[in-house]
Design a protein that fits this description.
Structural class: alpha+beta
CATH class of the largest domain: Mainly Beta
Number of helices: 20
Distance between the termini: 52 Å
CATH superfamily of the largest domain: tricorn interacting facor f3 domain
């Protein structure tokens, strides 16, 4: 017997069976390991004493601390913020520091800021009047920090240098490991109109009553992050990449007009001095009320306050421990309500502030949504650790800070509103309150990796929205489920289908992508949703996700820490998933390229005879083998193939080779099908298939993503049955983000063939 030829024949048959088209003895040029399932040793940095291979903080992990003591005054008449601060910076790193870097994010608004020229532009075919005026007629806004001094603890000037949005403070001597250093900065800046001049904070003017509502953030010079990964994170603030900040303790006094209502990050220290007796009474009631908000300042009281413009001042004093930032909101227009929510064994206050222009929408929904958000996020991560969470109404803004966030959603002037406005407001409140968890507590570097907070937060937002619809169905009435606009797989396919020239991997700096919304919010949220519902399963995913959240609360995780923890806590190898979804712009497209029906034959089929002839092997040398022969004429024979003849041949084989007792234990099919799947898209995903039989029953089979590990282009699977298959559908519930469903069914739907033109455009 020619054993060499026999081995080659069997190997050739096996290779052909799993989908390879090349001959095994054909010489090929060598290549590096480009398998989609290879481990991510090249992409990931080596584990070390700071961050372990399991994705946890290592024994040498450290983080710096920045404590602030500030006196702030808001000048309502001149629309300015004045401030002085003392920063105490503690060097917990093993390094000695020669200088400190301080962030001056307001400098992005200087009238000569390079950020104003960071994008190309040209003549547009048309402009809205407001846009034309802003672009061509208005003078640039004169914003940015005006630094009056930088002094050491002895009030001696320190040398400093401002580079755009970063200020280097040169130390008189090296700040050694374990030491602290205190210095002071005095500054002021002009507050921008955030409605007409954009921005994450500022003021809104109300022409009818002459008042303004202020949402104030990025308002003080803030310490940059120093760590073992990048040293100083002093990447300039260009406008899109948000913030990288160390944790610290804050002691802040804010002086505003005496008729203003104000709330902020931290716990109010002088409530008796700034609250009326009636407000304190209502506040004490709110602390014990869990079912509905209690009004601290009513709409009628706010409307009365709008009429006066006090020249007197009032100072609000807040203390916050272990936070990474500080923000506040103030206006005489604010209505204020609160309610308690039970988180673990603690009571947390859910709070809303809004002008009358937000009603009735805000009074009905805001605080209730804050409470539900805190409960759901706590269930999936860790118990919310702060004592309150505030939702502040602000036109056109969704932005987050520790314990306080600014949210859009405004009814029409007559108080009416559409479902779109209502659900848009609820969605943004969930999202921004959710940011308390990511990145205010799980404190990733937003300046570098926007998806780590925006995408992860959008994913938990989706879970919260759907749970809100289940727990409080009256909120989403008349709809049956919350109309989430991000999260489900089918909602990202349009983005993943666009011209590759306009796509960037998720693992890109937010300044360098075309569409930040789908790239940093939608696509990672979808990826995690698919990972939870389709790849890992909810139980495994939820445990791993909670493990990551708890490991890194009040710490600074990197993408690798997230990726590694999700695998470490689940025992699921996900390198193929991270590489495809996060490191490439590949898209999902899996197709049914062929369906073949076979029968059992006593003789080799045509393909087998061809291989035998090429190898010089006779039929006698192959025994004992079972042969499958394909029905001729493809689709017609699949419909008309003779199962009785097939059964006869199969039964003969069984009688010849098995005892009667063995036959009784066998599951003997009538039909043999080979389903050929191809993957025009680059992303590896499971193959989820519904097989429909002639009696109307269906069977769903899920082939794991690993089915592609040996052939990234084509995979064949055998299906046996006692019933004839009449329909096959790929990804029936649209859970894999497949961009082209026209090739997802057999027989192919004729009305979807036009998608081929679109697909060719996508691949170009």
């Amino acid at each position: 017997m020619n054993y060499k030829n026999l081995v080659l024949l069997i190997l050739s048959f096996f290779v052909s069976f799993i989908g390879f088209s090349q001959e095994t003895d054909e010489k090929k040029q060598g290549h590096i390991n480009n398998n989609k399932f290879r481990q991510m040793y090249q992409e990931f940095s080596s584990p070390n004493m700071f961050r372990t291979a399991a994705g946890a903080p290592g024994p040498a992990y450290y983080q710096q601390q920045a404590d602030y003591k500030m006196d702030i005054e808001l000048d309502d008449e001149n629309k300015r913020v004045y401030g002085s601060e003392t920063i105490t910076y503690t060097n917990n790193s093993p390094d000695n520091l020669e200088y400190l870097w301080v962030q001056l994010d307001q400098n992005v608004r200087k009238k000569d800021s390079p950020s104003l020229e960071k994008d190309g532009d040209g003549a547009a075919p048309y402009y809205l009047p407001s846009g034309f005026t802003k672009k061509f007629l208005n003078n640039p806004f004169d914003g940015g920090f005006n630094i009056e001094y930088v002094l050491d603890i002895n009030r001696k000037p320190l040398k400093f240098f401002v580079n755009q949005t970063m200020m280097r403070v040169d130390l008189p001597s090296v700040l050694k490991s374990g030491e602290s250093y205190s210095f002071s900065i005095k500054w002021w800046y002009n507050i921008q109109d955030h409605v007409n001049q954009d921005g994450r904070s500022g003021y809104e003017s109300f022409d009818k009553d002459g008042n303004r509502a202020y949402i104030i953030a990025q308002f003080f010079p803030r310490m940059a992050v120093y760590n073992e990964i990048e040293g100083w994170q002093n990447y300039q603030f260009w406008g899109d990449g948000e913030f990288a900040l160390p944790f610290g303790n804050y002691d802040v006094k804010i002086t505003v007009p005496s008729d203003h209502i104000l709330d902020a990050t931290g716990e109010l220290q002088n409530r008796k001095n700034v609250f009326s007796k009636e407000m304190i009474k209502r506040y004490n009631k709110a602390k014990k009320t869990y079912d509905k908000p209690v009004m601290i300042v009513t709409q009628s009281e706010a409307e009365e306050a709008e009429k006066g413009f006090s020249k007197k001042k009032k100072t609000w004093h807040f203390v916050a421990e272990n936070v990474r930032d500080f923000a506040f909101a103030t206006s005489r227009k604010y209505i204020w309500d609160m309610m308690a929510v039970k988180i673990g064994n603690r009571d947390v206050m859910a709070v809303s502030m809004y002008p009358k222009e937000g009603n009735p929408l805000w009074e009905d929904y805001s605080t209730v949504v804050v409470a539900e958000t805190l409960k759901t996020y706590s269930d999936y991560t860790f118990d919310y650790p702060y004592h309150k969470a505030i939702s502040v109404h602000a036109a056109q803004i969704g932005m987050e800070y520790p314990m306080i966030c600014f949210n859009f959603g405004r009814p029409n002037l007559d108080g009416s509103y559409s479902d779109r406005v209502k659900f848009g407001m609820i969605g943004v409140i969930i999202h921004e309150v959710g940011h308390n968890f990511f990145p205010m507590i799980v404190n990733n570097d937003e300046r570098q990796w926007a998806w780590m907070d925006e995408g992860i937060n959008t994913f938990v937002q989706y879970i919260t929205e759907q749970k809100l619809g289940e727990d409080i169905p009256e909120i989403i009435y008349p709809l049956k489920k919350f109309p989430s606009d991000r999260g489900p797989a089918e909602m990202i396919t349009n983005y993943m289908s666009v011209d590759q020239n306009f796509l960037a991997p998720i693992m890109s700096n937010p300044e360098n992508v075309y569409s930040l919304g789908p790239n940093a919010y939608g696509k990672p949220a979808t990826a995690l949703n698919i990972l939870r519902e389709t790849i890992m399963g909810k139980e495994l995913f939820d445990h791993a996700f909670k493990t990551y959240s708890k490991r890194w609360m009040f710490k600074h995780p990197t993408p690798e820490d997230f990726f590694r923890t999700m695998e470490d806590a689940s025992a699921v190898d996900l390198d193929w998933f991270w590489r495809g979804w996060f490191y490439t712009t590949d898209y999902v497209d899996i197709s049914i390229s062929d369906v073949k029906q076979y029968f059992v034959s006593p003789n080799p089929g045509s393909e087998m005879k061809k291989m035998m002839k090429e190898r010089g092997i006779s039929k006698d040398q192959l025994r004992p083998l079972v042969f499958l022969e394909e029905f001729e004429n493809d689709t017609e024979n699949l419909k008309e193939g003779n199962p009785l003849e097939n059964s006869k041949l199969l039964n003969n084989y069984i009688k010849e080779n098995f005892s009667e007792q063995e036959i009784n234990s066998l599951n003997i099919p009538k039909y043999f099908y080979e389903i050929v799947f191809e993957k025009p898209g680059g992303l590896v995903m499971p193959i989820i298939v519904d097989y429909e039989y002639e009696d109307g029953t269906k069977e769903r089979i899920k082939y794991p993503a690993q089915v592609w590990r040996k052939n990234d282009n084509k995979v064949s699977k055998m299906v046996t049955s006692n019933k004839k298959i009449i329909n096959i559908v790929l990804d029936p519930d649209l859970e894999t983000a497949d961009i082209d469903t026209s090739n997802n069914s057999w027989p192919k739907k004729q009305d979807e063939s036009e998608f081929d033109k679109f697909k060719s455009k996508v691949k170009g």
